[in-house]
Amino acid sequence: QVQLVESGGGLVQAGGSLRLSCAASGRTFRSYAMGWFRQAPGKEREFVAAISWSDSSTYYAGSVRGRFTISRVNAKNTVDLQMNSLKPEDTAVYYCAADNFFCGSSCLRASDFGSWGQGTQVTVSS
Asked: How many Å apart are CA 64 and CA 96, to the nearest integer?
């Protein structure tokens, strides 16, 4: 398993940008697919974005496609989520997750990811 620590959350006005970062520990980081999920109060945890370990293929939820960008730097054991054009409905706790049995677009559920960070709060004001 890998240990994950998120950073970069905060308060931003609608239309603004934030960049979340996830630092992973473990020598096998490059063999894990990485994902970002979010959970708003009273709602289930939902998929936001993921990036594969093999060819860095990326996957996005429809609600964030075109606004959010996931990227990874294996040499630094980090994965980032650049969030632009933020909306109040993007308000949630954002979690970084890792999966070493990734199977692409069929493996984007929270239950597919075995390692999780503690989460970072993102609040978008209107």
From this structure: 16
Helices and strands (DSSP H and E) totals, the chain: 0, 11
- Which of 93, 99, 89 minimizes the C-alpha distance to 64? 89
* Residue found by looking up tokens 């934030």 in the block: 18
For the record, the structure tokens of 9 come out as 């959350």
Evaluate if residue 75 carries a pLDDT over 90: no
Q: Which two tokens stand for residue 124?
A: 């978008």
What is the rounded average pLDDT for all residues in the chain?
A: 94
Q: Identify which of 88, 89, 18, 82 has the alpha carbon closest to the alpha carbon of residue 51.
A: 82
Q: Which long-range contacts (CB under 8 A, 24 or more apart) does 53-60 make?
A: 53/100, 53/102, 57/104, 59/104, 59/105, 59/108
